[in-house]
Design goal:
Elements (H helix, E strand, L loop, with lengths): L5 E13 L13 E13 L3 E5 L6 H8 L7 E6 L2 E2 L5 H8 L2 E4 L13 H12 L5 H14 L16 H13 L5 E5 L7 H18 L2 E6 L2 H7 L2 E6 L2 E7 H6 L4 H8 L8
Parallel strand pairs: 3-8, 3-9, 6-7, 7-8
Antiparallel strand pairs: 1-2, 1-4, 4-5, 9-10
Length: 270
């Protein structure tokens, strides 16, 4: 990291949901469940900021709020020095181009009726309508090749690929616009260990090649140990500990972090 420029900043983000019950149920005014409870963070350009915690702690809700797929109930969110929550229309679209998401389940996040060329190239069609057909095709082919898929992938459908290949398609789609920020939500948890390791290596290579900043969401400390420059440990909607990866993994300050570490047989050396 050459600079300590803040790319994304969140202050006191909160999000709660009503427990159970649909819109018309008698539970509509019932107790609320707080998924994200006053989270603050600042992510520096070029780093990998990991959020780790057990299932249900609010990680995914937070990830989706950071890219405005979910609106927070309250709090502030700044991206590239702009108030992201105040942006609308074309201004919001311009910033959204710079932030993309890689999802946990590569099959659920890809449209089964679309060929890979169309799916990976779709963000270009939406955000760069000025590009000609040939240029769009060329960029799509080059990005698929960069993530390890040949030109023969272009005409095929998602179901024709393995889980690891589908995740590579998802990564190509996320990176086709050359975003500044990528939020990866459990990107290898649906894959077996060896395939997941290859995907993590690819993400690291792409980060240095394209100058990406990552927010990396995971329940797995070994995965986080491999990727993160800084780690936030999340429990019941709150960050209980935030610090440099080495410190959090080897000199944890919070009892809950120590509990999580105790449950892991060993961490990969960095």
């Amino acid at each position: 990291m050459h600079t300590s420029e803040i790319l994304l900043e969140a202050r006191d983000l909160r999000k709660s949901y009503r427990r159970g019950g649909g819109v018309f149920s008698k539970e509509a005014e019932g107790p609320r469940f707080t998924a994200v409870d006053g989270v603050c963070l600042a992510v520096e350009r070029g780093e990998t900021f990991a959020v780790v915690g057990e299932s249900g702690c609010g990680k995914t809700t937070l990830a989706r709020m950071l890219v405005r797929l979910i609106e927070p109930d309250s709090g502030e969110l700044g991206f590239r020095g702009k108030d992201l929550l105040a942006l609308r229309g074309a201004e919001l679209r311009a910033e959204r181009r710079q932030m993309q998401m890689v999802f946990q389940d590569p099959f659920a996040s890809l449209d089964p009726r679309m060929r890979v060329a169309e799916m990976v190239g779709e963000p270009l069609a939406i955000h760069h309508p000025e590009l000609g057909k040939t240029e769009k095709q060329e960029r799509t082919r080059a990005m698929l090749e960069r993530v390890g898929l040949g030109a023969d992938a272009l005409k095929r459908y998602p179901h024709e690929f393995s889980g690891g290949q589908r995740q590579r398609i998802g990564i190509a789609r996320a990176l086709i616009l050359r975003p500044k920020l990528v939020v990866a939500d459990e990107p290898v948890s649906a894959l077996d260990v060896s395939v997941g390791a290859q995907v993590l290596l690819l993400l690291q290579e792409l980060q240095s090649e394209f100058g990406l900043t990552y927010i990396f969401i995971s329940h797995s400390l070994p995965v986080v140990a491999q990727m993160a420059t800084r780690i936030a440990v999340m429990r019941a909607g709150k960050f209980v500990e935030v610090g440099p990866a080495e410190q959090v993994l080897h000199l944890p300050a919070h009892a809950y972090t120590r509990e999580l570490l105790a449950a892991v047989p060993s961490l990969p050396s960095r």
